[in-house]
Amino acid sequence: MGRAVPAVVSPLLRIAPHGPLPDLADGDAVIFTSEAGVTAWAALGGGAVGRAWCVGARTAAAAQILGFEVAGVAETADALVALVAQPGPVVHLHGRFTRGDVVGRLQARGLRVSGQCIYDQVAQPLSDEALGVLGAEGAICVPLFSPRTAEILAKALPTSLRATLFVCAMSEAVAAAAADIRAADLRIAAAPTGDAMRKEVANCLTSRHVT
């Protein structure tokens, strides 16, 4: 039986919904590339209008709860670009910070796709508890789930950093964004899913004897 490992939770960003919502007609399709998009849509008073193309099972489940008909689910935005088959109109409901040019690549395929920013990913400072851990000797496993959080952490790390960091990135894109983090090791999850990240973190804790 494994031993308990202390965890410090210090969110690096906050989702801040903002309008206006796009004017969608019944039957129009949307693209959600994260669960945050679904949450922001609902917070702004949006309801289900038609089909939704989603990145990730959690995103798809959240869209279904709102009443969308999930037309397709992909593990990554790249895979979703290849999957979307509806000629249009389709609206990508995204955050202020985006990657992969989903709209442009779908338009290049001849699809009628537009984008609408409905939330911001506001950077948050590291908590006092997190700064205390980073400023002390010891090994720390750091899971990073998005390129945005990787970039925020790289800028937020204290100059007095004494801890040894072992980073677990959810994808190649997250790993690339974490390049400036002073890490002893950087692992990439086998798939961009919550289950794969849990396994990678468990492997990190076991193999690196993180305390």
UniProtKB/TrEMBL annotation:
GO BP field: tetrapyrrole biosynthetic process
Tree of life domain: Bacteria
Tetrapyrrole biosynthesis uroporphyrinogen III synthase domain location: 7-197
Gene3D superfamilies named in the record: 3.40.50.10090
GO molecular function: uroporphyrinogen-III synthase activity
InterPro entries tied to this protein: 4pyrrol_syn_uPrphyn_synt_sf, 4pyrrol_synth_uPrphyn_synth
Protein name: Uroporphyrinogen-III synthase
Lineage: Bacteria, Pseudomonadati, Pseudomonadota, Alphaproteobacteria, Rhodobacterales
